[in-house]
Every structure is written in C-alpha cells, then in structure tokens.
Amino acid sequence: MAAGDCTAIAEILRNQARGTMSGKPKLHYFNGRGRMETIRWLLAAAGVEFEESFLEKKEDLTKLQNDGSLLFQQVPMVEIDGMKLVQTRAIANYISTKYNLYGKDLKERALIDMYVEGLFDLNDLLMTHEILPADKKDQHFANMMDKAENRYLPVFEKVLKDHGKDFLVGNQLSRADVQLLEILIMAEEFKPDIFAKFPLLQSFKAKLGNIPTIKKFLQPGSQRKPPSDEKVVDQVMKIFYS
Amino acid sequence: MSGKPRLTYLNGRGRMESIRWLLAAAGVEEELTGFPSPLLLDGSLLFQQVPLVEIDGMKMVQTRAIMSYIAGKYNLHGKDLKERALIDMYVEGISDLMQMILMFPFSPPDAKEKNLESIKDRATNRYFPVFEKVLKQHGQDFLVGNKFSWADVQLMEAILAVEEKVPAVLSGFPQLQVFKTKMSNMPTIKKFLQPGSPRKPPPDAHYVETVLKVFKK
Predict the structure, then answer these.
(1) Do B68 and A114 touch (CB under 8 A)?
(2) Which of A22, A170, A82, A104 has the alpha carbon at shortest distance from B85?
(3) Bridge partners (DSSP) listed for residue B6
(4) Is A152 on the interface with B (CB under 8 A)?
(5) Which residues pair with A84 in a beta bridge?
(6) What is the pLDDT of residues A66-77, one digit of tens each?
(7) Quick one: pLDDT at residue B31?
(8) In what order do the strands lie in the sheet with B52-55?
(9) Which residues in chain A have their CB less than 8 angstroms from residue B63's CB?
(10) Do B130 and A71 lie within an 8 Å CB cutoff?
(11) How far apart are CA A56 and CA A185, in angstroms?
(12) Cβ neighbours around B31 below 10 Å, total
C-alpha cells in the first residue's frame, strides 16, 4: 500500500466523529476547473480521497450563502477537519502543510511560496481565458502565452537546471511541483509545442507523472476536470454573474 | 549590511504597503531604498516584478510570499495549523477588499463613482460584518487565538484605508470601532501611525502617473 493510502485511511479514521459523514474532505464548487482545480491536484497528490458537491444553478450558491457556510459568501469552500475553509490560498496552505507538501522549514516555505504565487498569477490568466467574450480572446491568448513563455516557464526551467534535482525545492515533492505540473499540462493544452524551449520542464512533467498518486489522478475516471466547454462556461455565468 | 530588511518599490503604497504595516507591527525597522534602477533588472526580480524585499539573505518577491515569511518569522501566524488556517482565511478576504482599493485610483473617470460604491458595499456587507461577528462572539481583543497576529494588522490597515474613502464606514460596527482604538494604541502600530514613519500617504495623481509610466508593459 502506498504511503499516500495510509495517510488517507488514518485521516478518515481521525475524522469519523466530525465533519462530513465519510470523514473525507468535501469540496463545494461547480463541475469544472476554475479555482478549485489546484485544490483537487494537491489532495490527489497527497493521496487523499475527497468528495465533491457541485453547484449547478444560482440557487445552489444562494443556499450555501444563506446557511452561513461561506465566510465571505464565495466558493471554493472545502469542509475538512471540522472546518468550512474558504479562500483558495488558505485552503491550499492548510492541505499542503497537513500533508507535508510545504517544505521542511520557513526558508523552504518562502521559496515554495514565491514559486507558487507566480504560478497562481499565471493560472489566473489561463483561467480567465475561458470566460472571455470571443472578441477579447485573441489578444488575451497572445498576452497569456507571452507571459507563460517569457516570464514564468523560464524561471522554473532555470531552477531545475541550476540544481539538477527532480523537485523544485529541497529535493522532495512539494506543492510547488504539483502546481507547476498542473500549469504545464494546461499550458500544453493551449499550445502543444510549448516544451520546445523547455526540455527540463518536459522531463519534469514525465517524472512527476510517474509518481503513483499523480499517475492515478492523470488517468481517465479520476476527479481531474477537463477544460471548461461552452456548457460549463454558461453555467458559471448563470451561477456567479447573473 | 545593516541586517534590516530592504524594501524596493515605488514611493507610494501599492502592494508594498501591507508589507510595511506588517514589519512595523512586528517592530522591525526597514532599510529604505529607492525605486529599482535598470541594474535591478539583472535577475534580482524572479518574475520581473516588485515588490522586492531583501531579507535574511533572500531576494523575496510576491507580496503574499513575503508577508507569510515575515508573519512566520515574527510569530504573527498563529500557534498551530488550525489557527493559521483562520488567519489565512481572514487575510485573504481582507486582501480581496484591499485589491479594490489598490485598483481604485486607476479607474477611468466615469467608473470612479461606481467603484467607490462597490468598495463601500463590499466593506459594509461582505467583509466588516464577518470581523464584527468574530470579535463579538469570542469577546477577545484579537481576531485569532487571543493573540496579536497578521490578521489583526491586515484588518487595521483595511479599516483605515476604507475610512479614507468612506469616512463613516464603521458607524454600524461597534466592535470594529473598539478594535481600531485598541490597535492604534499598540506601541508598534502607534509609532507607525505617527508622522515620519515608513507609512505612505494615499495615492495621488502624481503616484498614478508614475505607476503608469514605470509599469507600462
């Protein structure tokens, strides 16, 4: 049994008495990537099983708001360890610390945080592309790919080149690696030849993809979400922007 | 080398102001420096952006990374994982509100009134009620764990920033009024609120012009 499975089972046993019925973390969001996808990646990489409750219409959001489940009336919200956590970064920080994906000390954490904040900035660009009106998409696409190829990816290519190790920080798997992998896969969806200039990122992607928990998450049937299609975008507009 | 953290930014609030607040609240003196010369675009800036804070041998960028490091180092991040989660949630919520204030000076003239209304609405209906309730429920001086933390500093900064735009914004929030007074009287914060501290004035037209010029791309 992989280390991740033991962690997950121990977690379930610890949480039997409180929180969700199953003891597993429960994610509240729409059935698409958005801001929750990073959370799904982190939980999956840590080998933690989770449940999902999908918002499908505006009333689903209103209901959560009215029963006081959402501290600032927003999703993502994750029920975990007796808490209803909101705010993407707060949730990601908690999960990362709990499952040892946040470095071994304050300085490693600082490095991880810098990397991860850059990745969040790039993720924002990639994420907003889907919901832009058609006439704004082209220019946005050019800008986001420019930032990806000239501002962000070169940084991580260089980090890997400089220390020659498999992981970004401290020679062990951290959230920085998981979040970078998430971004690389998304960037490749937008531009299939994106790795032409980044050979080390290409081999990073292959290596990370072989870690059992991550390999499982990359397979069909996992809780990883596909890029949002028209139907999902439509749903998002109705739930949040109407 | 003075050993003091060195901050590199524009001569204005922007994204650096929250960092100045946190350092000041922790009683840490900063070494002042001007805006980056072209020399700094030599790889000192990981993602070609400021804020930059040189601290403990690191050239740190990304506002949240910097603040999280400072909070961790100076014991302003709670005593355990659960307190930290609470602090993180509060700080992230407040930072969403601060983002509106950050962007406000750059609103096109015809959007200014609407944006001001949004700030007032979000402050009074989404964010301040949460902290009013937190303080009321536990009856303690500080937001988390009965101890001064990053969350308290961030809330204090936000209260003052919103008040500059909406002077009577605390009128429906008696707990926050008491909180504001208590925070103002904490020695490190009191010092920061006095003239001559590293605190920057509200953005004016000159600041906006400088930002647009410098961050053109």
Answers:
(1) no
(2) A82
(3) B31, B54
(4) yes
(5) A79
(6) 999 999 999 999
(7) 87
(8) B31-32, B6-8, B52-55, B58-61
(9) 117
(10) yes
(11) 26
(12) 12
